Amino acid sequence: MFGRIHRRFVCMSSRLAKKKSQAEQKWIGRQLKDPYVKASHALNFRCRSAFKLLEIDDKFRLLQPGFSVVDCGAAPGAWSQVAAHRVNSAGTDFTSPLGTVVGIDLQHISPLDGVQFLSNHDVADHETHAKLSGLLPGGRAHVLLSDMAPNASGFRELDHERLVGLCSSSLMDLAEKILSPGGSLLCKYWDGALARHLQEKLSLEFASVQSLKPNASRKDSAERYFLARNYKRPVKGKTFF
After folding, report:
1. What is this structure's pTM?
2. Number of helices and strands (H, E) in the chain?
3. Under a CB-based contact definition with an 8 Å cutoff, are residues 114 and 84 in contact?
4. CA distances from residue 66 to 82, 94, 100, 141 in whole angstroms, order as listed
């Protein structure tokens, strides 16, 4: 099955490459050689990024059955797929607690069993926060995931600054509203001069913060992730037991 899918992908990509620019042809060639792209087809993941979260979760066990998870920048849904399986939000494991997964993105996201998507929603919008509170048990989440990033401008430092700003403002604001004390946050950033400032800000809110680069992140990419655990601050207006 996977072989047929991959052959169709190769043939289609080869035809498209003839009409593409040099940069686009280079991207297609890289995709054809990428083992994570091939594996994502074989395992029916929506994209290769699923393996980044799988690797991190295998090591740190962030996603436990029964947990509530919010996936920011969820499109096309690969991280939500992983989260849904690990927290049992589709109820496929009758012996484990039932979890909750909510994915948010500015783009449309195709439906997925066990996941409630807020398509065409902005993480920074207070209306989105209100909808999240209604979807999450008790209005809170155990884990906040973010693989989101602004559209690339082509200027590395500018893109770095914009992503760090997105994490330190919109994501931290969302954490203050919905993340349970003791909860975890995993967010993507692009390495650069401001990464240390983001780490310092996270360290004020979480007991531990570490920088990770999973194997599925391409070696030539500035992409990294901050894993922040044991959230210190209570959610405003909420009482926890």
Report:
1. 0.82
2. 9, 7
3. yes
4. 14, 12, 7, 11
Domain ranges of the chain: 1-33, 48-231
Assigned token pair, 140: 């809170």
Q: Which of 72, 185, 187, 161 is nearest to 122 (CA)?
A: 72
Over residues 134-171, the pLDDT tens digits come to 999 999 999 999 999 988 888 889 999 999 999 999 99
User: What residues are annotated to the active site?
Assistant: 188
The CATH number of 48-231 is which of 3.30.2130.30, 3.10.450.540, 3.40.50.150, 3.40.50.300?
3.40.50.150
Q: Locate tokens 């043939």: which residue?
A: 11
- Given the structure tokens 């919109």, which residue do they identify? 170
> Which ranges constitute the DSSP H helices of 43-171?
50-60, 78-87, 126-135, 156-166
- Per-residue b or e along 152-190, where b marks 16 or more CB atoms closer than 10 Å to that residue's CB: eeeeeeebbbbbbebbbebbbebbebbbbeebbbbbbbb
Residue 125 and residue 123: Cα distance in Å, rounded?
A: 6
